[in-house]
Amino acid sequence: MLSPRVVVAICLCCTLQASLTNISRGIQEVHNLMTQSSSSPRDFTEVDRRKLSDIEHQLQSELQDARHLAAEDVKQLPPIASHLAMINALRAGVGNMTQMVETVCEAAVVHCDALDGNSLFKLTFAAGSLSPCPSHLVETFAWAYSRLSGQNGKALSDMVLVMAKCNVRNRPLLGRYARSIVEQDHSLTSYDVTNVVDALAKLRFADIELFLQLSQRAIGIMDTFSARDVARVAGAFATVDIFSFELLHQVSHRAIQVMDDMAAWDIAKLARAFATFNIADHDLFQHLLDRAAAIADTFKPHDIAEMKWALDTLHISVTGCGLFLDLLSGRGAPRGDVFDKRP
């Protein structure tokens, strides 16, 4: 295994020639070595940190004049950003990789129209890895990506997830992605539908027409939904307060089929969603309470609060209700407005 000091030495060697290609290769090599090394990045000495800082400064200097990069150098920007983002997740405080990722992404913005879909996808995720997230960069890359043709449902839904993470609330842009996903062929999966409705709900993008179209796509593949999928879809529609009886009917049916896979979070989210729409589906709640009683020790305070709120709102009284509440007595649920606000 290689020590952090050896990693730094290799990185320095890779950056002796100030070209983006060599730096990109050097960064990839450092990433590979860091993932293989038994030494933690936290073990870097102060001298090592200063060396890494010098490397970062050199790369940033290379990128300052990025508006004039040659075509071949432009192609190196997405891989550099992607590699830096991965190192950023591993480094645990070594160097200033966050600033480097942002510098690379800022340089790439100028060349958006010249980049292909794969490059824009990498840049979007690299920008999305930063904290705080530069929403303007994510939005710019997402717009450029949306203008390309031939993108699949998974890629589109993943892009929407990054926009949700970075709080990009551009309604025309979000609508463009939602419509593209709705128009996907039969390759659309439960993963794609679940992610996009969940992300749009988090952004409070309550477009009734698009959500109802997405509900139809969800209904068409409901038999492939997992326990987590049905809970997330129901929760998303409840969050934006868009009602689809047909969807909730299918969600209830599928939830009962996959009940043995339900976790506490799934049960609470489903109960909350049905209570939000004032639907007292006694058959569903009987199954939910039976499952809840079986895994009562896994419920967190917020899950308990949501279950109690749902049961109280719907005046549910089915076999197992008292048993479930008895099992949770003494564990307690948070008091206050958690009972009064929608998730």
UniProtKB/TrEMBL annotation:
Looking up Pfam families in the UniProt record yields: RESC6 (PF26188)
Q: Which residues form the RNA-editing substrate-binding complex 6 protein domain?
A: 156-313
InterPro entries named among the record's database cross-references: RESC6_dom (IPR058917)
- Signal peptide region: 1-18
Q: Which of UniProt's keywords are assigned here? A: Mitochondrion, Signal
Q: What is the official name of this protein in its record?
A: RNA-editing substrate-binding complex 6 protein domain-containing protein
